[in-house]
Each structure stands twice: as C-alpha cells, then as structure tokens.
Specification:
Length: 225
C-alpha cells in the first residue's frame, strides 16, 4: 500500500509514523508513506497557499490551485483521496478495515478554516474526522488514520492474533481489564480466576468484565435501553 500525505506540516504527520511498529512496517516495505509539503505546488513569489474567506468571516482557507496541482501529480487511477476535516464522517475501526484494502490513499490535511469547497467537489472521495473536536492541524488526524490502517496490513503486527481479540473487533464491546506480573502489587491482587487455568471460566469472566466496562465507559455501544 502507498499513502501520500499532503500537508503544510509534513514533519507533524511523519513524526508518529517514524517509530516502533509503523517504522518497522515501512522498513519492511509493507507500506510506503510519503509526506509532501503543499507549499511545493504553490506558485508566485510568496508561495501562498491560503487566502481570506469569500463572503467574509474569520480565518483563512486553503486555495484550490496548489491542492489541484499536487493531487493531479500524485494520484494514480486507483488512488482514493481523503480529506481530513472535523466536517467529515467519523473515523471508526470498520472504516480503517475498509481502507486497509485499498492500494493507494492520498490524505489531504486541512489547516486554518479548511479547504476551498471546489476541492471537495472535484477531488475528494471521502471526508474523514477523527472525532468531535477541532485540532489545529489535519496532519495530526492523518497520522492517526494512517496508524490505524497500517497496523491492519498483513505482517505489520508481529502477532497476527493481537488484533483479533481487541476492542472493536467486536464493535459493540470494549476489552476486559488486563493484568501482568507481579501477582501482588502493593496489596492489589490479580484476580484469582486468571491463574485458575480454567479457560472456559476465564473467557466467561472476560466477557462479563468487558460488558461491565462497556456499560460504564461506552453505554452508547450497547444501544438504546
Ligand atoms: N482537522 C481538525 N480537526 C480535525 C478532526 N477532528 N478530524 C480530522 N481532521 C481535523
């Protein structure tokens, strides 16, 4: 898979994708990630990329010129162009799974008040938000989306099982609490059941605790009532 990130701040997008699992996936050739500076496609003495809002209003908007030039250069016939914006569809594990089947993604990062709407109408296949809050910079959101997608690619995680059992594999349940050594930490004990060797009972316990946690932290996942 190839992922192009188009942003005014390529370093912000790349920093979290340059360590640990993401770094290894890139080095192993599982994914090729390239972050581009939108300013490279800007023209004129000042290489301007933004301007005031038509019709007035606070803030600045990314102009269509540099974005059209960049995407026309970067896109391939199979490329899917995604705009990172708080106005987008909310990113979920199911979307990460769908996007992990693609071969080429171009993540366009908004800045300031966003991008000229002609970009969205003409170039963008999908608008994505990583949640109901506003970041200073879509490059942060692009890194989040890239991370969630790349870890799903075959071979990206050492242990293929590790993304089977986790939260959102069952999209309606969070994970059960987990423990490691020592068995007794400052008088706080690992639940006996986990050392019982009784796999059926352990699975049942996990399911119960997962339910309890979901009810407490994410009742919305359990539906109304
Ligand atoms: N840019 C600013 N805020 C964002 C968000 N919540 N999701 C995606 N892109 C953004």
């Amino acid at each position: 898979m190839r992922i192009d990130i188009l942003t005014l701040f390529p370093e912000i997008a790349l920093a979290p994708l340059s360590e640990s699992i993401l770094r290894r996936a890139r080095e192993a050739g599982i994914v090729e990630i390239v972050a581009h500076n939108l300013r490279d496609w800007a023209t004129g003495k000042h290489r301007k990329t933004d301007d005031y809002l038509a019709g007035g209003g606070q803030g600045m908007l990314l102009m269509p010129g540099p974005i059209f030039a960049a995407i026309e250069e970067l896109r391939t016939p199979e490329a899917k162009v995604i705009l990172m914006t708080p106005q987008g569809k909310v990113f979920k594990q199911a979307i990460a799974r769908e996007l992990s089947e693609e071969t080429h993604l171009i993540l366009l990062c908004g800045h300031y008040e966003g991008v000229d709407h002609r970009v969205i109408e003409e170039l963008v296949d999908l608008e994505l938000s990583i949640g109901d809050y506003v970041l200073t910079n879509g490059a942060i959101a692009a890194a989040v989306v890239t991370d969630a997608i790349v870890r799903l690619l075959p071979g990206a995680l050492g242990d293929e099982r590790s993304h089977q059992e986790e939260s959102f594999s069952d999209p309606n349940l969070l994970e059960a609490p987990a423990y490691t050594k020592p068995i007794d930490f400052r008088g706080m004990k690992v639940p006996d059941i986990l050392y019982s060797g009784h796999h059926g009972k352990i699975a049942e316990w996990k399911r119960e605790k997962a339910m309890e946690r979901t009810r407490q932290n994410r009742p919305d996942l359990l539906g109304p009532g």
